[in-house]
Amino acid sequence: MKSDIEIARECRLKPIEDIARQVQIPVDELEHYGKYISKVPESLIDEKKVENSNLILVTAITPTKAGIGKTTVSVGLALGLSYIGKKNIVALREPSLGPCFGLKGGAAGGGYAQILPMDKINLHFTGDFHAVTSAHNMIAALLDNYIYQHRDEGFAMKEILWKRVLDINDRNLRYVVTGLGAKTNGVTMESGFDITPASEIMAILCLSKDEHDLRRRIENILLGTTIEGKPFRVKDMGVAGAICVLLKDALHPNLVQTTENTPAIVHGGPFANIAHGCNSILATKLAMTYADYVVTEAGFGADLGAEKFFNIKCRESGLNPKLTILVATTQGLKMHGGVALEDIKKPHSEGLKKGFENLDKHIRNMQAFGQTVVVCFNRYATDVDSEIELCREHCENMGVGFAVNNAFSEGGKGAVELAELVVDTIANRPSRPVVFSYTDRDNIETKAEKVVRQVYGADGVVFSTAARKMLERVRQLGIEDYPVCIAKTQYSFSADAHAYGVPHGFKVQIRDIVVNCGAEMIVLIAGDILRMPGLPKSPQAERIDLIDGRIEGLS
Amino acid sequence: MKSDIEIARECRLKPIEDIARQVQIPVDELEHYGKYISKVPESLIDEKKVENSNLILVTAITPTKAGIGKTTVSVGLALGLSYIGKKNIVALREPSLGPCFGLKGGAAGGGYAQILPMDKINLHFTGDFHAVTSAHNMIAALLDNYIYQHRDEGFAMKEILWKRVLDINDRNLRYVVTGLGAKTNGVTMESGFDITPASEIMAILCLSKDEHDLRRRIENILLGTTIEGKPFRVKDMGVAGAICVLLKDALHPNLVQTTENTPAIVHGGPFANIAHGCNSILATKLAMTYADYVVTEAGFGADLGAEKFFNIKCRESGLNPKLTILVATTQGLKMHGGVALEDIKKPHSEGLKKGFENLDKHIRNMQAFGQTVVVCFNRYATDVDSEIELCREHCENMGVGFAVNNAFSEGGKGAVELAELVVDTIANRPSRPVVFSYTDRDNIETKAEKVVRQVYGADGVVFSTAARKMLERVRQLGIEDYPVCIAKTQYSFSADAHAYGVPHGFKVQIRDIVVNCGAEMIVLIAGDILRMPGLPKSPQAERIDLIDGRIEGLS
């Protein structure tokens, strides 16, 4: 089969105005970035129409290193829905340059179920990530400058909580010391860089209701504590307006198209393992304003992205998905069933069946959120029919809808079974309103305890001394009503990346806590997860190339 | 008078297609970024037409902290040329976010002589700076990763020459130690950040002839020396293609418009004090393909930007300006004439006359490059006519053309005198072909010696021990034929920022040398110039604001 970029190149793109017209987005409101990308102002959101639209969440079993293909299924479902005549928009996150040049590749779907132009989307796109990086680092520079310029007047910080970000996998930047050398090089400090998708600014962009809410959140960002023990925020430097200016355009969602010329809205890009993992509320609501069915996804397995989708994004926005699709692959199931990683592409029915345990736990979890669940089997070329039938049988026994997605190879017509199942299920037995794992009034320990017990299947949570200190700070700040955002490996229900299947008898260690007073959530860092990834020995960058103006090696 | 952004907001912009049509740029080739900005492919350059176009360089006397208004004069001249019916394009550099949020403000002209949309141009624009930042830091991450991943195979670096960049004034990042903490956080190393306009990638973007030349230059970038003493380059990691992919769109020049709807091409943005200070060769040639007169500028005083414009950009591209305009202000002249900075806005004829010394030295310097020079007096509201007449008289006595620019207050009609002088001078006594300060075959010491003696008026150059070591490296690498790019304070002919006027009896200390094997130049760091600026006590960011979707405080 052809590579993703070959398929993307062969697709006949339609001008973005034509895509907008399909769903009655007013063409005059588009802000073009080339012929095939435009920004759409969030002011077009109509809450009445949002209420009448059907939101579908796509999530997955615990993924392998290669992923489960959630984006491919999301795009495939959108193609399938269009194929059967349903007006829909797929609402996705923007890819990060880090994984694109690192291990995982881009994040624009695959095969005949992609969003286009995939090269632009996977690279600089409309500059939203760059705006987030600039805004984040501008705050860091302004903060260090404030300390430097006011140090002779007795101003000093007891603790600085604000780091820097880059949209690159650069492990060497995780922990740095800045301000070395001459005295005029600033004040010597410990610092570090996270990847841009972990930036609090990214979370704020994805959770803001409008420009005013963005402003309020930027003002409230907690940068640290002064020597007098007072919280020091962006508003204390008087620069929130300047930071909002840097984010002005980034706040507008981006309109693109799929491989079959249907509309896609792509906006925001926090990772689900180190951040809250959902596209922006504005993008989802904008899509719901213009379509009867909106397909969106949350990152990595359902323990990460979907949990945060419900407990953070739905709580914040009032959104209620009508249906949750849980994506599974034979490879993923076999990995969870104990099959060695080098053998998961070969037939192995016993291993597959053992892997159902992981699928079932995710199904029960999603049902606990009040969701109607259907399982989507994402077909790979190496899959055999008998194993797919085992999955179908298993889901039937569980009383859960089942469909195969073959959009990767066939585009929309490979997702008709899935699309029909989705439409039928939403019509006949839609989800209940979201049942949250915890209430606002639970304190942070209780919130964490509830998530790790109910969702991860853990025996509880343990806070490190550093984390306990931050918990005390959270209490002092009076922000215990914020939801928790657990940063945890994507490869296991537990914080141990090698514990496949459904681990039991473990506790989740919270190593550190990051307070996000702008995004209004408390980030709990579990186990050894790092918010700045590294590059592998042979990074994808070695295979990306530019040959006579043609980009190769992007996937 | 109204503020820059108020004037900008009141301007009625024309769709960018209309601007392109004015000069017969084919509209189908435009890649839009909103209604008023587009990228134009550099493949449209026609060398025959370039030869027949008239290039005008705008440079200045040694500037004050507020600048001399070169960009305002460049745009003003373009407006004036249009006013008298001459087909022209102004070709400028892109502003950096660093000074925009720091001390100096934006760089899109001022008053009624601006390029628009000034907010977009001063902020993220078409993302070119972000692409340069990404490409530069991606190389840094790939390099550190290469060292980390191959350290057990005996690979190690004796010296790393590649730093990182951010488009922010952040003094705390000048000198950092990375890779601290756990072993998995990489290899502990000294590093640092320069501002993006000092990135070698920025210089490469501005000097590349086409995509293939870009590729060749990226491959050749010298990253350091291996433990065996071998040069280690980007091509040794096999990632040059991936880096070119990140720069693919950034290589295309950007088309915008002036306050009077005439075309402007804005592309590339190295600073002239810490880099070579000229817009891209591709942008200049593209402008020359479509206009009879092309106005371009080089950064800061003529000792910095213009020297590098001739010795680097013209040498590399074969361009020959027909005329050089030297911009002067009463404030600048008075500063050089010994008037205290707080008094330079008040009348002071004696101080003004003493300041002519600085003007005259720059005039003689430009004439030594083979240039016909005219002096443009950039009028400020506080100026008095008698002082302007003193300047006119002085220039007449020097045998040099003189005109007042009042485009800041009046737009194009305020620059008619200047435009007529320019057209007349080009017709009757155009410059000779550029006379370089040194030949390719001079060694680096000789090249530096020639520039500091001829252009700065110094008694010679002194290399530090560190610089001498790098000179030896340059010899070993066989790259002594590269031109030199002297990084030096913009506030004096010397390396002492407080030596106004025309200092005498000084030598220029070269503290360090940065080898740019991709940009093909040797950067000599003179005195205490820093390639990462800091923010002032009250940065511009405190005055930039977003009020109901309207940007305020940008200038």
Descriptive account of the structure:
2 copies of one chain form a homodimer. Chain A has 555 residues and is of the alpha/beta class. Chain A folds into 3 domains: 4-125 and 253-428, 3-Layer(aba) Sandwich (Rossmann fold); 128-247, Domain 2, N(10)-formyltetrahydrofolate synthetase, CATH 3.30.1510.10; 444-526, Roll (Formyltetrahydrofolate synthetase, domain 3). In chain A, 36% of the residues lie in helices and 19% in strands. Chain A has 19 helices and 25 strands. In chain A, strands 1, 2, 3, 4, 5, 6, 14, 15, 16, 17, 18 and 19 form a 12-stranded mixed β-sheet that branches. In chain A, helix 9 (211-220) crosses helix 10 and helix 14 packs parallel to helix 15 (385-398). Chain A is globular, with a radius of gyration of 23 Å. Chain A starts with a helix and ends with a strand. The interface between A and B is large, with 76 and 76 residues.
Name the pair of protein chains with the most residues at their interface, and give those residue counts. A-B, 76 and 76 residues
Amount of beta strand of chain A: 15-25%
Helix/strand structural class of chain A: alpha/beta
Shape of chain A: globular
Which CATH top level class of the largest domain in chain A fits? Alpha Beta
Rg over C-alpha atoms of chain A, rounded to the nearest angstrom: 23 Å
What's a concise summary of this model?
Chains A, B: GO terms for molecular function: ATP binding; formate-tetrahydrofolate ligase activity. Chain A is an alpha/beta fold.
